[in-house]
Design a protein that fits this description.
heterodimer; A: alpha/beta; Rossmann fold; 6-stranded mixed sheet; 4-stranded antiparallel sheet; 9 helices; B: mainly alpha; 0% strand; globular
C-alpha cells in the first residue's frame, strides 16, 4: 500500500534533513506505527505521504502509484486525522462534517452513526467552539473515516482523550483494520503502538533505527526470566530462567509452598527497547 | 452547483453567528446606501459646494462598502487559519486553491451587487448601464484585494481590524489625485483603486476611457496575483 525508498526531506532554509534516507513498506491491511520523540521526523514523513510537503528526495509509492503522479483524487482514498483539532469553530459538529463531506466524490457513511460511535451523538448540533479538546479530537477522527478511505493516517489519535474515549478510538482503529484498511499511525504513546500496530518503526533524528512487530521486539530485547513475588511475613521476589521453568525445583517449590502474589515474565517494554536502540528517551 | 450552494449556506451561517461580521456585511453597506440616497443629497442642498465632489464622495463610499465585504471574508480566513482548517482543506479532493477561489469569488459577486446598487443612485445617472456594470466589477475587485491583504498581513482578527483601518486609508489615497494637476498624480496609480476612480470620472464625462479600464484590470489582476501568492506562502510555508 505504501512503499518508501530512500526518502529525505529538508525544510526550506534548513541544512539538516528532517527526514534522512528512510525506507519502509506498509502492506495492505496493516496498522503501521511510526514512533519517535518530538522532532524526530514522524510528522514530516506523514506530511510527505499525504502530499502536504513537496520537494522530497527518494521514491514514494502509495496505492501502487508514485506519489507525484497522484492528483487531488488521492484524497478520495485517504483519510487524515491530524494531531491537533481543526474544525470551523462557529459551525456545529454536524455542519462541519457536512461541509467537509461535500468535497468527496464518493459516498459518505452515516454521520450521526459515526458521531454516536465516538460518543458525540448528543453534541451533533453544538458549536465546535464549545467542545473540549477531546471532543474535537473525536470529531477529527470521524472526519478522517467518514468517506471510508482505503488508507488512513492518524497523528496521535488518542491525544487529549480520557481512557474511555481513548478506548473507543482504539477500537474503531482496530475495526478499520478488520475492514481491510491500511493505517499509518504516528505516535509517541508506546502503549497505543503496542496495542494497535502490526509493526512499528522507531525514528530518531530523521532516521529509522529499527522496524519489527512489537511482540518480536519485546521477546528479542527482553530477559528470558520469570520473576515471582511472594509473601513470607515480608514481601520477597525471585527470578528463574524461563527455559525449563516447568522442571525448575525452586520455582515449583514457591508455587507449592509460598503465598504467591504475582508472577511476571521479563520481556522488555517498548520504552526500554526504544532507549536501548536509539539511546534517546521517548517523550 | 448544489455543493456551492451548500458551502455558501454554511458560510452565511458562520457570518450570522458573529455580530461583527454580519454588521460589516449587511449593516455597513445598508448604512452607506442610505447615506448615499438621502444624506448626501440633503448635505448638498445645505452646502452647495459639495455638489462638485458628489461623485467622488459616492465612489469613496462604494469603496467602503466593498472593503467591508473584504474585511468579513478576511476575518473568516483568519479564523480558518487559526483553526488550521485550511490545512485540512489541503487534504480534501477539492484542494485549498479551489476553496479560496470560491471564497474570494462569492465575495466578489456580493461586492459587484453592492457596488452596482451604490452606483445606481440618481446622482450618478450620467453612467450608462454598461459603464455602471463595468465600474461595479472594478470596485468589486477591491474586495478580494482587501481580503488577501488583511489575511496576509495580520495574524489574528484584532490585528486584522488594525490593518483594515490602515488599508482603508491607503485605498482612499488615490482620491487625492483629483486635486493634483501635475504628472505626480500618476504616482498614485500604484494603488489599483486610482484607475477605478478615474475610469468612473471619465465615464461620467462621456469618455468611455477604455485605456483606463485596461490598466485598471491589469493593476487589479497584478495585485490579486501577488497577494494570492503571498497569502499562500504565509499560510502554508
Amino acid at each position: 500500500m505504501i512503499s518508501v525508498s530512500n526518502l529525505s526531506f529538508i525544510y526550506p532554509g534548513n541544512s539538516v534533513p528532517a527526514v534522512d534516507d528512510i525506507s519502509f513498506e506498509v502492506p495492505e491491511g496493516e496498522i503501521f506505527g511510526f514512533l519517535g520523540p518530538s522532532g524526530a521526523g514522524k510528522s514530516t514523513t506523514q506530511k510527505v505521504l499525504i502530499r502536504l510537503l513537496q520537494g522530497f528526495q527518494g521514491q514514494v509509492q502509495v496505492m501502487g502509484r508514485p506519489l507525484k503522479e497522484w492528483g487531488k483524487s488521492f484524497y478520495n482514498h485517504v483519510g487524515v486525522g491530524f494531531e491537533l483539532p481543526n474544525h470551523f469553530g462557529k459551525l456545529t459538529a454536524m455542519e462541519n462534517l457536512k461541509f467537509f463531506s461535500s468535497f468527496y466524490d464518493r459516498p459518505v457513511r452515516g454521520l450521526m452513526e459515526l458521531l454516536s460511535r465516538v460518543g458525540l451523538e448528543n453534541d451533533a448540533d453544538k458549536l465546535v467552539n464549545e467542545f473540549s479538546k477531546g471532543m474535537k479530537m473525536r470529531l477529527n477522527f470521524v472526519r478522517a473515516i467518514m468517506h471510508s478511505p482505503e488508507l488512513l493516517f492518524f497523528d496521535e489519535p488518542t491525544s487529549g482523550l480520557d481512557p474511555v474515549n481513548a478506548r473507543r478510538i482504539k477500537d474503531l482503529i482496530l475495526e478499520q483494520r478488520e475492514e481491510g484498511k491500511t493505517i499509518f499511525l504516528t505516535t509517541h504513546v508506546m502503549h497505543d503502538a503496542e496495542e494497535l500496530c502490526g509493526r512499528i518503526a522507531f525514528i530518531v533524528n530523521g532516521k529509522i533505527a529499527l522496524i519489527d512487530s512489537p511482540r518480536a521486539l519485546k521477546l528479542e530485547y527482553g530477559r528470558r526470566l520469570v520473576r515471582v513475588e511472594y509473601f513470607t511475613g515480608e514481601a520477597r521476589e525471585e527470578e528463574f530462567p524461563l527455559d525449563g521453568i516447568g522442571g525448575n525445583a525452586g520455582f515449583l517449590r514457591i508455587l507449592r509452598e509460598e503465598n504467591v502474589q504475582a508472577i511476571h515474565t521479563e520481556e522488555a517494554t517498548l520504552d526500554e527497547i526504544f532507549i536501548k536502540v536509539t539511546g534517546t528517551a521517548l517523550q | 452547483m448544489q455543493k456551492l450552494l451548500r458551502l455558501a449556506r454554511l458560510d452565511f451561517s458562520m457570518i450570522l453567528r458573529e455580530q461583527m461580521l454580519w454588521f460589516m456585511l449587511f449593516v455597513v453597506p445598508g448604512l452607506e446606501f442610505c447615506l448615499a440616497l438621502w444624506l448626501l443629497p440633503w448635505l448638498e442642498r445645505q452646502f452647495p459646494p459639495i455638489a462638485d465632489y458628489h461623485a467622488l464622495i459616492l465612489m469613496l463610499m462604494t469603496l467602503q462598502v466593498v472593503t467591508s465585504i473584504g474585511f468579513v471574508l478576511a476575518s473568516m480566513l483568519l479564523d480558518e487559519r487559526d483553526e488550521q482548517v485550511l490545512m485540512v482543506l489541503n487534504t480534501m479532493p477539492v484542494g485549498v486553491n479551489t476553496f479560496l477561489f470560491y471564497r474570494l469569488g462569492i465575495g466578489t459577486i456580493m461586492a459587484v451587487l453592492f457596488s452596482f446598487s451604490m452606483l445606481s443612485v440618481p446622482e450618478l445617472a450620467g453612467l450608462n448601464l454598461a459603464s455602471r456594470l463595468t465600474a461595479s466589477f472594478l470596485f468589486a475587485g477591491t474586495a478580494p484585494i482587501t481580503t488577501l491583504a488583511l489575511a496576509s498581513f495580520s495574524s489574528n482578527k484584532v490585528e486584522g481590524l488594525a490593518v483594515y483601518k490602515g488599508l482603508s486609508l491607503i485605498l482612499m489615497i488615490p482620491a487625492g489625485s483629483f486635486f493634483i494637476q501635475s504628472w505626480v498624480q500618476y504616482t498614485l496609480g500604484i494603488v489599483p483603486v486610482y484607475w477605478t476612480l478615474h475610469y468612473v470620472e471619465k465615464n461620467l464625462a462621456g469618455d468611455p476611457a477604455f485605456e483606463m479600464l485596461f490598466v485598471a484590470l491589469l493593476m487589479h489582476g497584478l495585485a490579486l496575483w501577488g497577494l494570492f501568492k503571498l497569502f499562500k506562502k504565509r499560510v502554508f510555508l
